[in-house]
Amino acid sequence: xxxxxxxxxxxxxxxxxxxxxxxxxxxxxxxxxxxxxxxxxxxxxxxxxxxxxxxxxxxxxxxxxxxxxxxxxxxxxxxxxxxxxxxxxxxxxxxxxxxxxxxxxxxxxxxxxxxxxxxxxxxxxxxxxxxxxxxxxxxxxxxxxxxxxxxxxxxxxxxxxxxxxxxxxxxxxxxxxxxxxxxxxxxxxxxxxxxxxxxxxxxxxxxxxxxxxxxxxxxxxxxxxxxxxxxxxxxxxxxxxxxxxxxxxxxxxxxxxxxxxxxxxxxxxxxxxxxxxxxxxxxxxxxxxxxxxxxxxxxxxxxxxxxxxxxxxxxxxxxxxxxxxxxxxxxxxxxxxxxxxxxxxxxxxxxxxxxxxxxxxxxxxxxxxxxxxxxxxxxxxxxxxxxxxxxxxxxxxxxxxxxxxxxxxxxxxxxxxxxxxxxxxx
Length: 426
Known about the structure:
By secondary structure, this protein is of the alpha/beta class. Helix content is about 30%, strand content about 20%. The chain has 2 domains: about 5-235, Metallo-dependent phosphatases (Purple Acid Phosphatase, chain A, domain 2, 4-Layer Sandwich); about 240-420, no CATH class. The protein has helices spanning about 30-50, 65-85, 255-270, 295-310, 340-350, 375-380, 385-400, 410-415, 420; strands at about 5-10, 55-60, 90-95, 115, 125-130, 130-140, 160-165, 180-185, 190-195, 200-205, 220-225, 230-235, 240-250, 280-285, 320-325. The strands form 3 sheets. A 6-stranded mixed β-sheet has the order 4-3-2-1-11-12, covered by helices on one side. Strands 5-6-7-8-10-9 form a 6-stranded mixed β-sheet, with no helix packed on it. The protein has a 3-stranded parallel β-sheet with strand order 13-14-15, covered by helices on one side. Strand 5 (about 125-130) and strand 6 form a beta hairpin.
């Protein structure tokens, strides 16, 4: 039997207590835009729900930390809920660990169109349009004693359209489970598993990216369900500023003039399709990247200053956040074949990169002061992938600082075989 068609917004990851990070300096002309971006992105989610006349909104966790967001974040959230209430739009919220910090959420006076799912068990709710039921929702909020398992949401015997609302991805990476038509999952990054017309596992990600690691479009998802339970999704972009990663292939024969022209060409392409301020992280790559003037930090900083002055003040602005050079996968033999301080340094790095090398013990070098745990982890962490990247980046730093006044490209033969050693292709 055919059911009723309906539509809803799926969102989450507001993180209203957070600010954008990853900029060494905040340009004055973008300061208000950057500081207000998380709030404005959420406002655009609310405006989308009202404009599209949805039946309800699903919140998949990480909305805010009430203890650090403060009164302004809580008041802002209540105002958004009131706006939805005025349009008779319900909001169903699977609260995450972040949301439940300090048990503030339980004491918050949210309007009656908001339902926060219980933490101790999966709740079952039916959403009505007038007197007619249109779908059944199953949701549970975070519980430190109960891992998030898909099996507890499955209800194969129920009729009608079934939605599971989760604050995270749980154990769904292996694929969807039968009995639920739409799995509304949370998490930092957008995800979609085994999509079909009649079943989908979907995570919308955040409405706004907060760091260079969260590049690309961000937004919420508009979900349309027709009378035959066929699902169609449409991504609605809500990010106020967009993080972007741009790779630039460098030729070993490139001069600074050539490099500027290559950057200008890339910038013109970016400007042709941008409708909001963009924060760009540049990565120089290619087999010739260590044989150009751009291998030096001083030259890269000059290019970065030029990019910011020439393109960072346009409307919309394209602000270059950083300009880095891709580190080598391995240290080439011919980088270590003389008696220079640089070769000694690179030989030590190469030895440390061997599989049988003893892990670096960095803790004794950390100042004896109280530091946040995440900062300590970043400084002394020994997770193999992170440690390997750290060594590769250290090699590039040493390659720059210990080469004296030698001009990159003057002795290309000495540094040319790194392409074969790395297996780099352009």
